[in-house]
Specification:
This protein is mainly alpha-helical. Helix content is about 70%, strand content about 0%. Among the domains are: about 30 residues; about 140 residues, RNA Binding Protein, Prp18, Chain A. Helix 4 packs parallel to helix 5. The chain is elongated and about 75 Å long. About 5% of the residues have low confidence. It is found in: Nucleus. Its main location: nucleus. This is Pre-mRNA-splicing factor 18.
């Protein structure tokens, strides 16, 4: 795959150079008063593409496509280069995702007060733990679904998994607000302690946009604002989380269902003991 990497880098460099050259000449054409003088300059853009095509031999191109099982005799050279570029980028994305999953699977899913207290200095660790914990509850549900008319069925599980996709993605790319991470971590912390009263209280705070802190955590630099403005929506910057959008509302509801399912399984386990 070393050849593929070198080809990809060379293609990217030449494509970038061609793009910059075309952009510079386009700007010159737009600012020039005499359009006749610009026309010969713009005519030089096409040869840049030819240079890019000529810089890669057909043999190297075919060999690289074969390594990806992407051979297609019906494509011309330009389309083959484009296809190789897409295949290399897809491989890089897959490799990055696999590396992330390896890192995620290496962390302990148990969330501690220290983890929550270190949100401002080690947020990534908390995000990884949250993903593992959420997936852990889902996996338990997959192993122990309830049968109708009980509510926590396979059908509901499918809805929960679908609704939590956005949350899991935001945790992975680091785009979930710190206040939401803190409240979500507090919810999972109490679920793991089997304190479902406090888990539900923390869920309510998450829903209206307040910040939920576990007992033992006083201040991590994230502060709640007045709840009334969040509920009424008078201040758009402090609107309730459940009103921020359909996808946010759905994953918050999905979290609520995970709390309820965990509580039901915990109660069922105690009754059988």
């Amino acid at each position: 795959m070393a050849l593929t990497g070198l080809l990809s880098e060379e293609i990217a460099k030449k494509r970038k150079a061609a793009k910059e050259n075309a952009q510079a000449k386009r700007t010159k054409q737009e600012t020039s008063v005499d359009t006749e003088q610009s026309s010969p300059e713009m005519a030089k853009v096409a040869p840049e593409k030819e240079k890019l095509l000529d810089s890669v031999s057909n043999e190297d191109l075919e060999r690289s496509l074969k390594a990806f099982d992407g051979e297609d005799p019906n494509l011309n050279k330009e389309d083959k280069l484009r296809k190789l570029d897409l295949l290399v980028k897809a491989e890089h994305r897959n490799d990055a995702y696999k590396a992330y999953l390896d890192e995620e699977n290496s962390v302990d899913p148990i969330i501690t007060l220290d983890d929550i207290g270190a949100i401002t200095t080690n947020k990534r660790q908390l995000e990884l733990k949250l993903r593992r914990s959420l997936k852990g509850i889902i996996k338990l549900w997959e192993c122990k679904p309830q049968e109708p008319p009980k509510p926590y069925t396979v059908g509901m599980l499918k809805e929960v998994k679908r609704d939590l996709v956005k949350l899991l993605y935001r945790l992975r790319v680091g785009k979930l607000d710190d206040s939401m991470i803190l409240s979500l971590a507090t919810i999972i912390y109490y679920i793991q302690l089997q304190d479902f009263v406090k888990a539900n209280e923390s869920y309510m705070k998450l829903s209206i946009g307040n910040v939920a802190y576990p007992i033992g955590i006083r201040d991590v630099g994230i502060h709640a604002r007045h709840a009334l403005s969040k509920i009424t929506g008078e201040d758009k910057s402090t609107i309730a989380n459940v009103m921020k959008g359909e996808s946010t509302r759905k994953w918050i509801l999905g979290v609520k269902r995970l709390i309820s399912y965990s509580e039901a399984i915990n109660k069922q386990t105690k009754e059988r003991a």
